[in-house]
Amino acid sequence: MPQKTLKDIAEHVGGRVIGDSEILIESASTLDSAGAGQITFLSNPKYAPKVKKTHASAVLVAEQVETNAAQSVTEDPYYAFMQAVVLLHGHREHPNTGVSPKADISESAKIGQNCNIHPFAIIHDNAVVGDNCQIYSGVFIGPNVTVGNDCILYPNAVIYDGCQIGDRVIVQSNASVGQDGFGFATHKGEHHKIPQIGIVVLEDDVEIGSNAVVERGTLENTIIGKGSKIGDSVTIGHGAKIGPHCLLVPQAGIAGSAELGHHCVIGGQVGVVGHIKVGNMVTVAAQAAVINNVPDGSTLLGAPAVEANKGKRAYALIETLPDMRKKIRTLGKEIDKLKDK
Amino acid sequence: MPQKTLKDIAEHVGGRVIGDSEILIESASTLDSAGAGQITFLSNPKYAPKVKKTHASAVLVAEQVETNAAQSVTEDPYYAFMQAVVLLHGHREHPNTGVSPKADISESAKIGQNCNIHPFAIIHDNAVVGDNCQIYSGVFIGPNVTVGNDCILYPNAVIYDGCQIGDRVIVQSNASVGQDGFGFATHKGEHHKIPQIGIVVLEDDVEIGSNAVVERGTLENTIIGKGSKIGDSVTIGHGAKIGPHCLLVPQAGIAGSAELGHHCVIGGQVGVVGHIKVGNMVTVAAQAAVINNVPDGSTLLGAPAVEANKGKRAYALIETLPDMRKKIRTLGKEIDKLKDK
Amino acid sequence: MPQKTLKDIAEHVGGRVIGDSEILIESASTLDSAGAGQITFLSNPKYAPKVKKTHASAVLVAEQVETNAAQSVTEDPYYAFMQAVVLLHGHREHPNTGVSPKADISESAKIGQNCNIHPFAIIHDNAVVGDNCQIYSGVFIGPNVTVGNDCILYPNAVIYDGCQIGDRVIVQSNASVGQDGFGFATHKGEHHKIPQIGIVVLEDDVEIGSNAVVERGTLENTIIGKGSKIGDSVTIGHGAKIGPHCLLVPQAGIAGSAELGHHCVIGGQVGVVGHIKVGNMVTVAAQAAVINNVPDGSTLLGAPAVEANKGKRAYALIETLPDMRKKIRTLGKEIDKLKDK
Known about the structure:
The structure is a homotrimer. The first copy, chain A, is an alpha/beta fold. Chain A is built from 5 helices and 39 strands. Chain A is flat, with a radius of gyration of 26 Å.
């Protein structure tokens, strides 16, 4: 395991050292578990008491704290921690397979420089794959798909025909991008498939989680905006537009033609119904059901979703409904007695 | 792009032209986006004002409307639109791979005429695949599976041993059909797997979405009725029976041994508990929890699910619980004052 | 179909026969469907009337009941039924492919005795697979993964680098184990991937359902305890710890760093938020939202989840909110009238 001095790390993250800058760090860990040779971080002030008792050799902090560990003070300690983890552990190293002769690559496909195309990957006619891409086994890149530079497609990810993928996009295992939208014309009791002629566009720096599904558009494209991260098992309906820099936590579902602004955070198992507009910087708590347009900057919770401040208390009061009902009955009886007097 | 005259299209959909029947149409689009050379449709009368302002060259309508576009009047304009999209754009054209020597096909399997079996597809012992099927890469067709004619199995779809698939069935990418049901006998704190000896039957014209899962039955078969469409990431429990012509929107879950009638529409993220009967033509709103038998023709919403008419208002009132609680307290105090008098 | 006498079956399950012990049984079925030559079971006493009318040749019961069928009396009839199904039908027989030359196995990987490694399976550098394993087509076993003995990995299951799998583990089709946790450091509006340096540990006798996702840990490992069964389309967040012998029903979601004790039963579509502790032997009803620590032995329901006894009535009362609201208004008016007097 390569070691770094705290000084090295502090320089890398732009931090100021308090304490022993020559102390050796070999790995990163959590505040609870970190021990000698490890670095941790404090970003939420409520955990400050834990820093006081940490056995870590060093801690990344936003301002000097009371602790025996050496400190690196930096503006955004969680971001600094991410940088430290990259420095110490690195991102995944990909197998250096080159373009495997066991992959099935169409003669009309174009593959960039320095790609690893694993055995049993499929690249169809007229597909284009940029430079430095990792295309794992079982990946399907359909006809006319374009994949930018520095992309990683993990095993068994499927990209249907014609979809467009930007640079530095990651698609995790078993994800499906560009499947037919759930669009049928029902006529005399039978459901007839409407050809889904839109595609899916994954802009730069998007990540799609394992087993997530992004449907292609019926007539217009489904778009995942730059830098947005889609969690595992999320589904995105046909023609939905997800703005840039959103986070969609696992198992969320965005129905067809819904639109999200930028920097939205959609909690796990949330449902957003179709054809509504969710503004910018909207946060939705887990399991909520968003059924109406949402103004910029809102924080919502509940099913149906309401503004979080009032909603939190409201949903917590469901538990008291039997008491409320009883109380109402009691009041009714008391009123009847008063009337009788 | 091939062009059609409005007359051609109107004949194809059985419509009556109002306006220029020779106008050339090359593609289909939405009411909002359609421009010159495009055709759109009006099926929901509330969008009629948009038709008045559309830049489309033609519009499919149920009755004559005020618009500058040429019109084709037809009984079911959404169905006509589907037909027009098929005419103009067609369904997906599948790569003409023939039976790839890179597929792995058992000698005892039977493959029909005119099939495309892509590289790295697997067809196991005694499996039968009908005519005109598209079996994409990474598809697994287990031992003794039967697949009818004109089926499409998209990349990495898995059909476990013994399952039966009718004609014109579509299974989208990464879907799993016939995995073991979630059935365990718990004895002295350990969960013992019960062999799942039922199969999955997908009747004619069924579609299974990407990453959806249909479990095989424990003792009786799991059945998806003719023409039913199962959205992406839906899960169907062991032994469930889905009637014909149902729509199950993405992420819905139907637990084991539940039964749905015909023409049910189950919203996204809905849960239906096991061993209950949902009648015919039942509609369930997104995220609802259906925990009891449901009579024919019901419309439900909420968790727990209740009849929609009263449920909609009831669930909306959760938000007012803090006010209700306060009001009850106030009434209590006023009554106390009255008593004191 | 091989036949067994009821005597054979009773001996196998440790039961005492009442009636004809020589009667021939060839298959197992449900109480409703079983006919001549079939065995069924009664574990829930409420179905006793059905046993009276069953056409089954034999029934497994906990104590003697009134029926024309022969009976085998045993302590735990559902467990006995599982044993009888195994005796009569057996578990799935796996294709005997041996180590296929069409699989892609690294020279540095170690494969145990008696394994079937199917065509187009991938086993990467330094991976270890134990004895008697079934590795189906399209399975990806990443670098440095270890798989124990007697494991079954169904088609297109993906095990990311470094994950550790115990003995007798089953991973169903299209499941993803060890994908990157949903961990990003957001800095100046952009989300930066934190390397996920933990792994996933699946202890002995774990089963992972089709299309389920288990994320690897950010810094600490994600652990699924011995004997736990994870349903299809379940997602387990990074660093979560699931205790031994839990059942997680399909579509449940456990967020990052949540901890579950032993013998928990988590219903379908349940959400458990991150960083909380759920005790031992906790049962959570379908679709509930668990947002706080849960003591041992609790039974919860609802969103937000509350103790089941009071919760069941509380959630059912949501339906009455319009009435309650009306009643409160009426009381207010009556009080006003009383005041006026």
